[in-house]
Amino acid sequence: QPAEPRRAPSAWMTPRFGLTLCAAAMATCSSALAAPAQSRRIFSSAGKSLPAKGAVSKAARARVRGSAVATPPMTPSAASHWGVLGVMAILANAIGRLAPIAIEPLKRGGLVPGHWVAYVAMIATFAYVEGYKAFQLKFSPLVVSRAFTLGPEGGRATFMRSFLAPFYSMGLFHATRKRKIVSWSISIAVLIIVGLVKRLPYPWRSIVDAGVLSGLTWGVTSIGCIYAKALGGTLPAISTELPPK
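RESULT FIELD:
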């Protein structure tokens, strides 16, 4: 009796898909690093504690925490503009390199229904986790707020900080210890993710790149919107995470 032909493994159970999930999980974790830890009790630097969220008003919590109060209008300098636009240029360059690979399935085809589900799910996941949660709520307002500290009222401008304004705005230097750890951790995680994704064959590389592309596009758009509001006199109500002078 002839042996029953061996079924080919499902595309969902291959090492390729496992590597895709690994890359996506690393991106999710690196984005989560940008958000402060949530807890039932919040402690300020002075040792005060706040009740659980919802027990007091947002304004009262901000007054005790001392890091989320509204910032008075600040005049941007040339270094401020360079800081924000430089970060946007870095992200735009990455978007330009990812776009041709991300849209390749739309031109080349050859995807099974499972691939298309993964394609759409990756875009939605990265748009929310990376674009909204990490960029719009955390990273984008941080970039704009730190960049404006290089203005006349900010009192943080030096030649080196102004020259490296985009990296200063991202919190890679002259920042609190926690901010530097988070910023550098995310940068290193991105390099690892890029190395993993480049090893993925078609269509998995395109699937992951489409997700990253959606997150970066959301991110650069949010920076532009927050920057425009700041130019109009409304700075983000977020801590700049600067060390003492």
